[in-house]
Amino acid sequence: MRATRKTVLRRSADVASVNGLDGLSFSQIAEEVGLSKSGLAGYFESKTDWQLAVIGYARSVFRESVIDRGREKSNVNTPLIVSTCRAWLDYIELPVFPGGCFFAAAAAEFDDRDGAVRDAIRDTYAQLREYIAAVAGRDADEEGAGEQMAFELIAVMIYLNQNLRLAGDQQAGSIARRSISRIIGHSVDE
Prior knowledge:
Elements: H1 5-19, H2 26-33, H3 37-41, H4 47-73, H5 80-93, H6 102-110, H7 116-137, H8 145-167, H9 172-184
Helix pairs in contact: 1-2, 1-4, 1-6, 4-5, 4-7, 5-8, 5-9, 6-7, 7-8, 8-9
């Protein structure tokens, strides 16, 4: 079987969501996707380059699963912040990646390190915060409300992911929905 770069990145993101980006192994992924180790290594200049490519892939999956889906589901009766939060909840609860939210795991792994991988994760969170703040702030009455909502929503989503992954708390989704509904002033229950 000849693997494509996208297949390699998908499998790498799945593995990294469970084992971490440093847990990626050329030999493991190569075997799983039907490539030689050197064939897989040919896709990337270094392990850091591979990790950055996996982050880029995970960002595109998040964008499709949450941002794009939120936009598609938004309409006159469903504000964009509501449809985005619903899509985000689905992303975490399904989960899209076997280890849950890819970026929650990556942030915990790289939060105290320097380098390009940490910078890419940090930039992803910054862009997410900016997007959520802009969407949440559209209907806000006071200045800075969108930033506050973005901070709280990200915190709830990270804690939801942690409760599902670490504690197996099946009630966490209901609690998160109530919290999110309170934060944005709209029900996210469908």
